[in-house]
Write a structure and sequence with these properties.
- The chain is mostly beta strands and about 120 residues long.
- It has helices at about 30-35, 100, 110-115; strands spanning about 1-5, 10-15, 20-25, 35-40, 45-50, 55, 65-70, 75-80, 90, 105-110.
- It has three helices and ten strands, in the order βββαββββββαβα.
- It has a five-stranded antiparallel beta sheet, with no helix packed on it. It has a three-stranded antiparallel beta sheet with strand order 1-2-5, with no helix packed on it.
- Strand 6 (about 55) and strand 7 form a beta hairpin.
- It is globular and about 35 Å long.
Length: about 120
Amino acid sequence: MITGTCHCNAVKVTLPEQPAWVSDCNCSICRRYGVLWSYFIAKTVKTEASPDVLGRYAWGRKELNFVHCRNCGCLMWWERATPDPEKKMGVNMRMFDPAVLAAAQVEKLNGAEDW
């Protein structure tokens, strides 16, 4: 298990394993956020935060919520607007120790053209 936090430590994410790869998406929102995503089945990810510290943003078809810390602004993960613990969620791996990223292969995702 590996754990990452937002800058102010108000939000914590624990993953079942270190990812072998991360996704660098160039879609309109991901490139602005500057995130590197890893994907896990939602029920395998443990998130810890007071409900009042989590902010959510949805755009377009509003199928995904981008979840951030209201204190420091760090984007933590995306989740499905209609929760499904059996489906994937995306976790922002920039919230983890740099050694975690150093061990992962970065794969480019052309979301700008594919979505």
